[in-house]
Amino acid sequence: MEDKSKISLKDAISIGIGGMVGGGIFAVLGLSVTLAKGGVPISFFVAGMIALMTAYSYAKLSVAYPDEGGTVRFINEGFGYSVFSGGLNNMLWVSYIIMLSLYSSAFGAYASSLFQITGNVVIDQHIFLSGIIIISTFINYYSIKVVGEVEAFAVIIKLVILLAFVAAGFWGITDNPNFQQLNPENWESPLQLIAGGMVIFVAYEGFELIANSAPDIDKPKINIPRAYYGSVIFVICLYIAIAIVTVGSLDFTSIGKAAEYVLAEAAKPKFGQVGFTIISIAAMISTFSAINATLLGGSRVNHEVAVYNELPTEFTRSLWGKPFGLFIIAILSLVIANSIDLESISTSGSAGFLIIFGIVNYIAFKKAKDVGANKVITLIGFICCFAAFFILTIQQSKNNLEGILTAFLIFTLCFVGEWLFQNHLKNKIDKSVKK
């Protein structure tokens, strides 16, 4: 009999799907098509396979170490408390901030295009993206319950609209002349296809939220693995279907021009302005819910890292009744979203999570005997994550050097900052001992 106080398998899968089908697919689909052209479904498949292998490692670690800290706990279990583990956990925290910037940028792009096309009013997208971060921050400070209600409502709305978009898009798609764009002769090189998948890898990262809920999942040994695999496989199929419909509906030139709101543009050939409006509203609801959830999740990660003395203890304190980190995350997100372009934000987010997921795969490999993991699967996951990271780095260094340098600068600061902080703590302890 199911324990009503626990999270059911259905709800656990919903957490994974809700985490992945947030703002990522709305934000970066156009970018991926620009890189992979007609081979974009292959790009999503490759990225999905890496996510699925990583989900295997997460499932094993979540069962062995159920903790609200999730990834933070896994990293500390794998490497102990050190500058390296602290730097990695700070990277995870910063990656949440980058994701928040990505979602708000997507919200701004869809909101701006919707006003411009339906109301003939030109409003800078930075006004929208800044406004939604501020509004979401107020909501998080006001009530966590409201955040949960927004998320539950948004998951249903975005899935219904996306599934309807896919179903309608496939109807008669082979008669559309743009369907020929999916032929192999329109694919980019294998390296470019992988790079296209890695730039949009952020669209898959949300499954790791299941780890934070692991302590409350009913029948954990059975349901935790099912939740990971079920959510990731469903989203892989959904993303591939969306990619096929998009490339089969619009020519590459149109996709390039509407890269930041391409899903709404892809609805126009079949549904006209009404379709554009519905998808734009769905994107705004989806990214709004993703911003709310990421603010909450990021503040919790921030608090957890500070509890382990890998960030200053000030981050464990409250500000207006909520974690101090919530305010810091909101401020940093406003700065990043308003100063860095969408491709660079996406690159930084994907690079960060590829490194984190590669490390989690390594930890599962290292502790295979303790957690009951298959060493071959975890090793392949580790290799694939870092191979994908290097391919992304090479590709972006040619086309978006600023983006990759931004990512490296941000992540270097995570480790340098942790090293300085740990030295500060050591000196503080030494002075205390001498007294």
UniProtKB/TrEMBL annotation:
It comes from the Bacteria. Keywords: Cell membrane, Membrane, Transmembrane, Transmembrane helix. Its main location: membrane. GO terms for molecular function: transmembrane transporter activity. It is a multi-pass membrane protein. Pfam families: AA_permease_2. One of its GO terms (cellular component) is plasma membrane. It is found in: Cell membrane. InterPro entries: AA/rel_permease1 (IPR002293), APC_superfamily (IPR050367). The chain crosses the membrane at residues 12-36, 42-59, 79-103, 123-141, 153-173, 193-211, 232-255, 275-298, 319-339, 345-364, 376-395, 401-421. This is APC family permease. It comes from Flammeovirga pectinis.
